[in-house]
Design a protein that fits this description.
With 283 residues, this protein is mainly beta. It has 2 domains: 134 residues, no CATH class; 99 residues, Immunoglobulin-like, CATH 2.60.40. Helices cover 10% and strands 42% of the residues. Strands 1-6-5-4-7-8-9 form a 7-stranded mixed barrel. Strands 13, 14, 16, 17, 19 and 20 form a 6-stranded mixed β-sheet that branches. A hairpin with a 4-residue loop joins strand 8 and strand 9. It is elongated and about 70 Å long.
Length: 283
């Protein structure tokens, strides 16, 4: 029997059509490429900060035994997230924790992230540093607990729009010092070359006190002369003094400062230096 040539042509073309259909089906099973437009990614990061500085139920800190300050996290503490181009891409929020470890949760934006290569920088509570408004208490310096750290993206889930990263070990961007003065005062002004926010005015909520807890940011490991100007509760009696000091971030120290009535303009030369050094500080 002779087959119709038109039918034969149709049969010859059928394997090509089937192959094309199979190829199309295989292609649809491949992972979708990352979209070019920015999208939201869920991010959960395990973080930690060390003990020594910070404590109190107000924000992230509680008083420890003796002169030790113990870290903790208050629910709702924020952390800003920046990408490699230094763009703010999101804000994470902390779970409550009674020690230095917790989990930050939230979303970040971005077009794509590469596992093992892309990095994110975290600042808690934000990258804007401000040391004004301190009242000389542990609760006050807990509000000035500025932290910095980086993480590397480990995996990207396109289906769940989720990133996973390495854990973040935060470093503090300031030191904490307890100053004990010879005379009780209502406020003390601290100034020094390079001191962030200099001059800093610390005003106690009490009538007067001789102990002031203060958060200070200055050049790490460099000895500076710190000038002190204190004012008594009556608003007229004032005191002056100076002291050499060396700051190391991520540390807590105590020191005494012998101020003299301003008419005598006393100078104190005893050194005050934080014991712990942490050279890995973000500029």
């Amino acid at each position: 029997m002779i087959m119709n040539t038109k039918n034969l042509s149709r049969l010859k073309g059928m394997p090509l059509l089937l192959a094309a259909a199979a190829l199309a089906a295989c292609s649809s099973d491949q992972p979708a490429a990352a979209p070019a437009e920015s999208q939201q990614w869920t991010l959960v990061v395990g973080v930690s900060k060390t003990d020594a500085p910070i404590a109190d139920a107000t924000r992230g800190v509680q008083a420890g035994t003796g002169e030790t300050l113990i870290s903790k996290w208050t629910a709702g503490t924020t952390a800003e997230v920046y990408d490699e181009a230094d763009n703010l891409v999101g804000t994470l929020v902390a779970d409550a924790s009674n020690d230095g470890t917790t989990t930050l949760r939230g979303t970040v934006s971005g077009t794509s992230y590469t596992p093992g290569e892309s990095t994110l920088t975290l600042y808690s509570p934000s990258r804007t540093l401000s040391y004004g408004g301190q009242t000389g208490t542990i609760a006050s310096i807990s509000q000035k607990d500025f932290l910095y750290g980086t993480v590397t993206v480990q995996s990207v889930s396109m289906q769940r729009n989720m990133l996973s990263t390495t854990d973040c070990q935060f470093t503090r961007l300031q030191a904490f010092t307890k100053f004990t003065f010879e005379f009780p005062m209502k406020s003390v002004q601290i100034s020094a070359d390079g001191l962030e926010g200099s001059p800093l005015t610390i005003t106690t909520a009490e009538t007067e006190t001789s102990e002031f807890y203060v958060a200070l940011r200055n050049t790490v490991g460099v000895e500076k002369t710190y000038n002190f100007f204190g004012t008594a509760a009556n608003g007229t009696t004032t005191f002056l003094g100076t002291k050499l000091g060396t700051l190391y971030y991520n540390d807590y120290s105590t020191t005494s400062v012998n101020l003299q009535p301003s008419v005598e303009n006393g100078n104190v030369t005893a050194d005050w230096t934080n014991e712990t050094q942490n050279p890995e500080i973000h500029p």
